[in-house]
Amino acid sequence: MSDCIFCKIVSGDIPSKKIYEDEQVIAFHDINPQAPVHILVVPKKHVSGVNELAAGDEALVGHVYGVIARLVRELGVAESGYRVVVNSGADGQQSVPHLHFHVLGGRLLSWPPG
Ligand code: 5GP
Ligand code: ZN
Fold first, then answer.
1. pLDDT tens digits along 93-104
2. Structural domains present in the chain
3. Does 100 participate in catalysis according to the annotation?
């Protein structure tokens, strides 16, 4: 989508601190980190959010988790712990309408979230 921030990051039109890329996903550091480790794992295909996932996207979501499992090891938080968050809709405070998985770690994360 031409006016989507994360599509522009996928295409390289907006720069990012990229840490991983393959045919299906890209991962980069969040511009406004909320923890010592805060990355976003983003499907390259534009899907607005969880509600817009279609039949056939299961493999993509599974692939995202495989990438997350690899990246948390590389980032050194696999053993200390981390959180994977997908904010959805207004109450979930989703601000970018392109599906993305936050990975937060490197500090004790409070629960429940605010
Ligand atoms: P949401 O609020 O939709 O769950 O998460 C969007 C996230 O994208 C926020 O954590 C925000 O800091 C991050 N973000 C927004 N614009 C940019 C950008 O241009 N570059 C990067 N790296 N992160 C961004
Ligand atoms: Zn997009």
1. 999 999 999 999
2. 5-105 (3.30.428.10)
3. yes
